[in-house]
Amino acid sequence: MASERVTLTVTDTDSGEDVEREIGLSSPNRVVWPADGGGITKAEYAEYAQTVSTPFLAANGHRPVSLERFRDGIGGEGFFSKNPPKGTPDFVDSVMCTYNSGRKHPQIVLNRTSAIVWAVQMNTIVFHPWASLAADTDNPVELRIDLDPQPGTGMAQAIPAARELRSVLREAGLEPFIKTSGNRGLHVFCPIVPVWEFLTVRHAVIAAGRELERRMPDAVTTNWWKEERGERIFVDFNQANRDRTMAGAYSPRALPGAPVSTPVHWDELDDLDPKRFTVRSIPARLAEIGDPWAGMQDAPGRIDELLEWWERDVENGLGELPFPPEFPKMPGEPPRVQPSKKVAANWENDD
Fold first, then answer.
1. Residue 204 in contact with residue 303, Cβ under 8 Å?
2. What is the pTM of this model?
3. Which of 31, 116, 122, 167 has the greatest count of CB atoms below 10 A from its CB?
């Protein structure tokens, strides 16, 4: 009978020195992603985590991260862990974070390979990193734009939108990087200097989204309400908010086939098939072509131009856009009433 627990020896580099840590992995033969002919086990997933740890930490480390955990694999119910759970080892760091409600609590920070493997042991499948670092949780180091296909659209429509968005962002003085979402969409990231807080960066994202929408009005929308989006790619500007996150680079998704949110080169969009990027295929891909996001943070840009676009749009009558429903009422926000229900009573009474 296979062992119900194995001990993994994981090598970390702490302060320039290699440190070996032992991590117990329970139920190593439990199938996390079922598949015909043999699914991906927890042990195989832990091996993946070690193999991709360098690019994973470059993209997701040293920042608050939420862990989306599934005790029974992708077929079970998932839940989020933000606070370090009881018994968290000392090689898993944390940082105090302030949320939109004003409340504060510590959040997990992954700074070394052993911490990623520990998260796998805790049945984490999806890693959701913040856009800011633990050293300064209030100011993002990335401008992030989620291109979200709506019903009737898919990757074929997201790709041309991403290419045009790249042009928009470059005109604003930023250098965009792209990855698959691990599902149906694409994520575009621009490294930025951390001198603007989340709300300001969100305004920059809205400005870029509106410019993209003007150039591709039949293909792209910034409409928050689903009933107004149609068969277009939605620029999800609210992913730029504090404590709103996307699946991190090299994070698996809790979907059949074990897809991975994968950084790609822009010229790979020509024949992009996100289904090829899985827990089993990514290690070979990294060995062959390296990490397309290597050095992404070496030359962060500024969002001054996008903020000028935002102010221009405000002067022309385009102001704040709706926030997610769990957020407190924000300054300048329009009433949180979907257009088909905008009657005088709920418009005037919205607070």
1. yes
2. 0.94
3. 116
